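Each field is set out as follows.
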Amino acid sequence: MTVDTQELLDRIQPAQGGREIFDPATGELVGRAPEATAEELEDAVARAKAAQPGWAARSDQDRSKALHAAADAIETNAEQLAHLLSREQGKPLNGPNARFEVGACVSWLRATAEFSLEPETLVDDDSGKAVLHWRPLGVVGAIGPWNWPMMISIWQIAPSLRQGNTVVIKPSGYTPLSVLALVDVLNSALPADVLIAVPGRGDLGEKLTKHSDIAKIMFTGSTATGKHIIKNAADTVKRMTMELGGNDAGIVLDDADPKALAEDLFWGAFINTGQTCAALKRLYVPESLYEEVCESLVEVAKNMPMGVGLEEQNVLGPLQNKSQWEIVDRLVKAAKDSGARVLIGGDPEEGATGYFYPTTLVADIDPENPLVVEEQFGPALPIVKYTDLEQAIEWSNTLNVGLGSSVWSSNPERAEEVASRLVAGSTWINKHGAIDPRVPFGGARESGFGVEFGTHGLKEVSQPHVISR
């Protein structure tokens, strides 16, 4: 059933003009996105700055209630938001996709509303007393990605508001309508000007990162863009949380059960059609289980329908944009040219409508092949054979990124021992990418710094202030 999203679009589209946004699955026009000017950005920051002291002065309980009210508002508009997200981003309604993402927005808001940072007494003896308090920073500048535009926006918005900051958020230029609609719904439950969206192109984001009244930048996106943002923010010594690119490794141990793990392995790699920073992007499998793991993954992949997101049966969708499609196509071609064995997929239909790339599994591939060492960010998984576990661990740790990783085994204790040797912000056992609003999440190496979620995430959007006497 098609849900009418026009009411949402009418509230966020400009009266005239704007940039046209097209459905990556069908090529159809979704809507027109406004593009803020430099003057409108200045106004947004000024309004957010003016609203921040009053928001911070509210009680902790009041801010918690406001987040719950915002979650209620999303639930009321959940189906319309999911349909708009599916049309703009391309992800299907079902599976771990559009409805899942909107539901995650609600869950993260509610969980964050219940977290709190109480003052911590550090010293209280004859020498004196020292108490650590957590104060708001001011105005947080949030810059989000196009792969999970609503959910990751909430990861930035919820803790910032919870701690008494206000937020100016710039959506990705690929998915502005989803975030504008989300902000519109949130603002039906929030005080004026504590959350303001400023859609626009990259130069607007650059102005946001350099703005002297922005106290912190939260960014999720590529490592290359993250490095640029870090340089831009240096002159004003902004606090930063950077969740950057990854190329997550998974290691299957020789005691694993391939058939039992196959579906979890598949979704670890192909959630959101592979367009996830912490997706499984290279899989290392022992020679003794190699063919069985390959066959089990092919059986799962054959039964996962790909197509237009609004068609209820589909669980895999298109790449969100042409540039990303071309990256995946280039890397798969590099694998094929090297003589690697394509188990399924790898041959996109010429002239097809939409940026669809078939679900692709590639075996017998060299560990130095570009499909292995470069982040594909799409529906193509290289499966690398190993004969020595030490070699697999070395391969897993050899790249300059380290967002997530995983170990797959029938022996949890053995898996934990291997996990402890992997360089990553998160390592999962017998699952991959399983995030939780209570558990800190962040990267190692060039996958970024700072963490999100839980009380650790609240600290990232707060200024520690020690009062001693």
